[in-house]
Write a structure and sequence with these properties.
The chain is an alpha/beta fold and about 130 residues long. The longest helix is centred in the first third of the chain and has 19 residues. It has a 4-stranded parallel β-sheet, covered by helices on one side. It is about 45% helix and about 15% strand. It contains 6 helices and 4 strands. Helix 4 links the parallel strand 2 and strand 3.
Length: about 130
Amino acid sequence: KESNRTTGFFKNGLRFFSSFNGFRGALFGLRMDNYVRQVLSHFKPVVVITIYEGHAWERLVYNAVAQKNILRIGYQHSIVTRYSHAMCRSLGRSYDPDIIYTSGTKLVWSYLRDLIMSVKYCLDLHCNVQVN
């Protein structure tokens, strides 16, 4: 016989996955991917620039753009901590930007070191003030 805890877990999981809120991020990512592919079928850009915060939709955009051999640039402007795993992890050449512009300090470089192996250039814009 299942415990109340297990039954509650499955009920909550079913409620989560049957609601629209559970899939909002995934649907947004797929919609952005579709939109970028449509735009790329009409226009021939040389460069695509996005913010770079580690969201799934950014990676889907980089993949769509990579298939057209367009330069991909990500601008990392937010705080990077050791827990910023999604942004610092490489998902492979086609899902990573070619160039990352950052306004961070040397600390940012230490967190981005895993991603740097897949990226052509990382450029520090020296725009921020270090806060202790």
